[in-house]
Specification:
By secondary structure, the chain is α+β, with helices and mostly antiparallel strands. It folds into two domains: about 90 residues, 10 Kd Chaperonin, Protein Cpn10, Chain O; about 45 residues, no CATH class. It has three helices and eight strands, in the order ββββββββααα.
Length: about 160
C-alpha cells in the first residue's frame, strides 16, 4: 500500500562482557613493499573497539564492567568472534576474555610533544659530542651510537 522506504540506521549494543570490534584493513603489502594478491592478503589481527557491553555479574550480583572502552585498539585472536553486518560494514563480536591485549594508538606515537627546537636543545645537553663506551649491553651501546650518529647528522644539516 505505502511505497515508502525508511532508511534505518541499526545500532548494536553488546550484552554481557562482549565487545563490538572493527577489524583493521587487510594487509595488502608486505613489510618489504611487495603487493599481495587479494586472495593472499592476510586478515589483520588488530581492531578498534566500537561498543562495549555492560560487563558480567558474579554470583553475588556485583557487576564487573569490562576493562576496555570504545576507541581502544586491541590485538585479536586468529580465529573466533561472531561476524555481524551493520549496513555495509562488517564488525565482529568478541568476549572480553578472548581479546589478547591492547596496542598503542599510532596517533599518540607519532604526535610530537615538543617543538624541534626544544628537542634539539634537550639533546644538546643530554648527548655527548663523542661516543661513550658503555657497560650495560651491546644492544644499548649500538642504540646509543646510532642515536648520536643520526642526531649529529641532522644537527649539521
Amino acid at each position: 500500500m505505502f511505497n515508502r522506504t525508511l532508511a534505518l540506521r541499526r545500532t548494536l549494543t553488546p550484552l554481557g562482557d562482549r565487545l563490538l570490534i572493527r577489524r583493521a584493513e587487510k594487509e595488502v603489502k608486505t613489510a618489504s613493499g611487495i603487493l599481495l594478491p587479494s586472495d593472499k592478503a592476510k586478515d589483520a589481527n588488530e581492531g578498534t573497539v566500537v561498543a562495549v557491553g555492560p560487563g558480567l555479574r558474579d554470583v553475588n550480583g556485583t557487576l564487573h564492567p569490562p576493562s576496555m572502552k570504545a576507541g581502544d585498539n586491541v590485538l585479536l585472536p586468529k580465529y573466533g568472534g561472531t561476524e555481524v553486518e551493520i549496513g555495509e560494514e562488517k564488525l565482529f563480536l568478541f568476549r572480553e576474555e578472548d581479546i589478547l591485549g591492547t596496542t598503542n594508538r599510532s596517533e599518540q606515537m607519532n604526535t610530537p610533544s615538543c617543538s624541534p627546537a626544544q628537542l634539539f636543545s634537550t639533546l644538546d645537553r643530554a648527548l655527548p659530542l663523542e661516543p661513550v663506551h658503555m657497560q650495560p649491553s651491546i644492544v644499548t651501546q649500538s642504540l646509543m651510537y646510532k642515536t648520536m650518529e643520526v642526531y649529529h647528522t641532522v644537527r649539521q644539516n
